[in-house]
Amino acid sequence: MEGKKIKYGIIGVGYLGNFHLKHLLTINNVEVVGIYDSDVTRSKQLSKQYNIKNYNSLDELLMATEAVSIVTPTVSHLDIALKALNHNCHIFIEKPIADNLESGNQILNKVKERKKIAHVGHIERFNPAFQAFIQNQHNPLFLECHRLTKFNNRSMDISVVLDLMIHDIDLVLHVVDSPIKEIIADGISIISDSIDLANTKLIFKNGCVVNLTASRISNKDMRKIRVFENQCYSNIDLLNKKLTKHYADYDNVNNKFKFKHEDVKVNEYDALKKELMHFCETIINQNDDLKNIINSVNALEISEKINNIISAKINS
Question: What is the pLDDT of residue 231?
């Protein structure tokens, strides 16, 4: 990753934007030219801490950069992404790409029009445990996804489906190669004006069934996916970055199953840094493959359908 340095800006330096800033400052082919945040006190503080320029105007930052991370509330993604693309910037948008499918498609169409590189921050694609799992081909019959987080005040502007469940929806679409036939969903609002706990069943045309649970009112954190295949069960622990597999082989001599357990080796690395490095490499290599952003729009489309199903039940 030597040679050309990308002039890079960060829009939004709150909790997650701060991590973007820290990692981008350590990537060799990146020159962080500045930051912008509507919270001027916060941006000035980080500007001083990291000795980088704080821009008082978003347009000024965009004019000075080739690429930006958009790490702002979801409702603002559309306006900022379109503005950045019109300034000829490559864009990295933290998930979800937008707060509704129409906006997501607007961003996708603008990316195509401007011929720029756009990635969406579905970080779990780069999780070491998930990467270890997808090294081999799989034919899942049933998946169970649990994503629980402790109480916090972040992302309350969107439902738990767009905040949390969308991660697992995105991963499921990478694993199950079949269209969805049916969606069954339920959810409740407890602490916000939106859906805080949701359970969804996705039934695919090839017969695979996926059960997803997402909650932001838990007393513990959990991010697990269990994948059931023919005579094999895999436990992907995304939180602790562990992958275990359980096999059942039939012993014809003794007429019984033999069960084996394997702890699969998982490489240690920071998923966000790996994701940002991948984005920067695609810019340098001029790899304008739209698969990343299209997959993100697909995950948003399913999430929006789930939200609509749950909302209709709540309001009926």
Answer: 87
Burial of 172 (0-12, 13-18, 19+ CB in 10 A): buried
pLDDT in tens, 66-122: 999 999 999 999 999 999 999 999 999 999 999 999 999 999 999 999 999 999 999
Which domains does the chain carry? 6-123+271-287 (3.40.50.720), 125-269+302-315 (3.30.360.10)
pLDDT in tens, 179-192: 999 999 999 998 88
If you search the block for the tokens 């579905």, which residue do you land on? 122
Record the pTM: 0.91
The residues near 129 (Cβ < 8 Å, ≥ 6 apart) are 236, 237, 238, 240, 241, 242, 243, 266
Q: Are 29 and 280 in contact (CB under 8 A)?
A: yes
Average pLDDT, the chain: 93
